[in-house]
Amino acid sequence: MNSSEKKSLQISACKIRLGAVEGVYHAKSGHPGGSLSAADLYAYLYFQELNIDPENPKWADRDRFVLSKGHCCPGLYAALAERGYFSADELQKLRHIGAMLQGHPDMKGTPGIDMSTGSLGQGISAACGIAKAGKMDGKAYRVYAMLGDGEIEEGQVWEAAMFAAHHKLDNLCLIVDSNGLQIDGPVAEVAGPEPIDEKFRAFGFDVQTIDGNNFDDIERAFVHAKTVQGKPSVIIAKTVKGKGVSYMENQVGWHGKAPNAEQYEQAMQELKTALAGLEAE
């Protein structure tokens, strides 16, 4: 990508972070840490990678995205709003009774959501089924699924991985948001899934490990994944939990809580300053 395209993606990622913080603050609950770590990945997916049409969310030939780590939907919702699936005003209604945006993705009530998720480990299985259906129907669409590094402690993830490799689902691309922290503490201390790359390779995947907060790395990985034939792909994206908000970065306590009014103001000021800097370049 050229410098203009990269700046545009950086601006989109910053706006996604702003939207995620906005949503969690007004909900008074939610998961900011993993939403912020994945914001650059959301930006690349929704503004560069996915073949989608916000005006026709159920377009049969669209690419599909499954957020297997469904609790990190504040960032996904912000990306969908930025992409034009619904008004950004909806973000302030996050988790409110009767609102469009619930605490986990709901494919029946939210435009742009391809699979309802939330119970960890299950989203990847759904993504495998969607990819297999695409193969059976002779469709050209691709399927993307994002997991957390804590989530891959779930056994169902590896059952799905075996399925994907056995059926040669080269239309499937997994993204592991590897930010090193989960609700109970450092991932390495809870159930230590490393070496993640060697595990997926042993399960028959094409494997790439990247800096998931670097757009040059992100672009190279997704471009390569589309060239892989005969096997599924996984991009292990090393990220910073809480990326973009100084007091949230690498702090496990921000896995699943909302900022208070003072913390909200600080977070928004930091992100707005970053956004202004990008737009002024």
From TrEMBL:
Q: Which domain of life is it from?
A: Bacteria
Q: What protein am I looking at?
A: Transketolase
Q: Which InterPro entries match?
A: THDP-binding (IPR029061), Transketolase_CS (IPR049557), Transketolase_N (IPR005474)
Ranges in coiled-coil conformation: none
Q: What is the lineage of its organism?
A: Bacteria, Bacillati, Bacillota, Clostridia, Eubacteriales
Q: State the Gene Ontology terms under molecular function.
A: metal ion binding; transferase activity
Sorted alphabetically, which CDD domains does this protein's record hold? TPP_TK
Q: Give start and end of each Transketolase N-terminal domain.
A: 14-270
Does the keyword section mention Metal-binding? yes
The family classification in the record reads: Belongs to the transketolase family.
* Keyword Amino-acid biosynthesis among UniProt keywords: no
Swiss-Prot/TrEMBL keywords? Metal-binding, Thiamine pyrophosphate, Transferase
A Pfam family cross-referenced in the UniProt record is Transketolase_N
Q: Which PANTHER family does UniProt cross-reference here?
A: TRANSKETOLASE N-TERMINAL SECTION-RELATED (PTHR47514:SF1)
Required co-factor(s) are: thiamine diphosphate
